[in-house]
Specification:
The chain contains nine helices and twelve strands. It is α/β, with parallel strands linked by helices and 297 residues long. Helix 4 packs parallel to helix 5 (128-137) and helix 8 crosses helix 9 (264-271).
């Protein structure tokens, strides 16, 4: 069963307020989990920035790159001293999205924590589209963090539960986090109107999850709603429950949206003001038995 691996946490960094908030968030997580932070700065390829530039402009760009390296090293030093955790600085050149993913694979990173500006973003690394490209292409979990995130740590975690066969995988991670942060978990069963006939099945799944939480002495609440705008409903409930995080799977289908068709996970990453932990499904055959009532664990 897939678990949350926090031994190496990667944080893409570009000096913005959004990336600084993600860095603090990741540092607090690494501190409690005794993990290592890897701070990644990605530069544009020299071939792209040299075209049509004068010698003076190229010299200024080179000096700016060196200045950025010094600043990121100073930032890493400050985090080491404040949180007493190991921090490694990585510099890569090339495409930012593929760079993040390749560095993760090369360094055996277990978790990405990155900022996102959501649907209100401008065109940069942490735009909603770019952050979701990382989320959707990553084979490891990703926590997306907004600049306005108010606190580090998770006292209340919202877990949308549906009829998909991978639902149980996010429960395992939720239990891990609940034990680390003494969190209360809030189970939210979501049905759309077309699934109304499956209500009893979803209730049974939630009851089995509740049984697992009781056995692990995890505090929880649970409720079931019917909504044609699942992600929007989840965000409303998250606010009501004063949640600090939402945990979702990346394989869930389209969610109704005024901004066009987006997956449930995509909409949460775009619109949530609290961190979203996006979990890619584990596809090993032995770990994805159908989510029948007897097959959650």
């Amino acid at each position: 069963m897939i678990t949350l691996n926090t031994s190496r946490i990667l944080v893409p960094f570009d000096f913005s307020l959004t990336s600084k908030k993600a860095l603090k968030h990741a540092a607090a997580l690494a501190q409690i989990c005794k993990g290592e932070l890897q701070l990644l700065y990605i530069q544009k390829p020299k071939s792209r920035i040299s075209i049509g530039r004068t010698t003076a402009e190229l010299r200024r760009i080179a000096e700016e790159a060196e200045s950025n390296k010094r600043i990121i090293e100073m930032t890493a030093k400050e985090i080491r001293e404040e949180y007493n955790i190991p921090v490694k600085v990585l510099v890569d050149i090339g495409n930012k999205i593929s760079g993040i993913l390749s560095v993760c694979e090369k360094n055996k990173v277990g978790l990405i924590v990155m900022g996102t500006e959501g649907s209100d973003s401008v065109s940069n690394l942490f735009s909603g589209s770019n952050s979701h490209k990382v989320v959707s292409r990553s084979t490891i979990p990703v926590i997306t963090v907004r600049a306005e995130t108010k606190r580090e740590g998770y006292a209340n975690i919202l877990i949308p539960v549906d009829l998909s066969e991978h639902t149980r995988q996010k429960i395992v991670m939720a239990i891990q986090l609940a034990k680390l942060f003494k969190s209360r978990l809030h189970l939210l069963g979501i049905l759309n109107k077309e699934d109304k006939d499956a209500e009893n099945k979803l209730k049974a799944i939630i009851k089995q999850i509740e049984k697992r939480l009781k056995s692990d002495n995890i505090e929880y609440t649970s409720e079931l709603v019917v909504s044609d705008t699942a992600a929007s409903k989840a965000l409303v409930v998250a606010k009501r429950k004063k949640s600090d995080m939402i945990i979702t799977m990346t394989d869930q289908g389209p969610s109704a949206s005024l901004l066009g068709p987006r997956t449930f996970d995509h909409e949460l990453v775009d619109e949530s003001n609290i961190p979203v932990l996006s979990v890619p499904p584990e596809l090993h055959e032995e770990n994805i038995a159908p989510a029948s009532i007897a097959g959650l664990w």
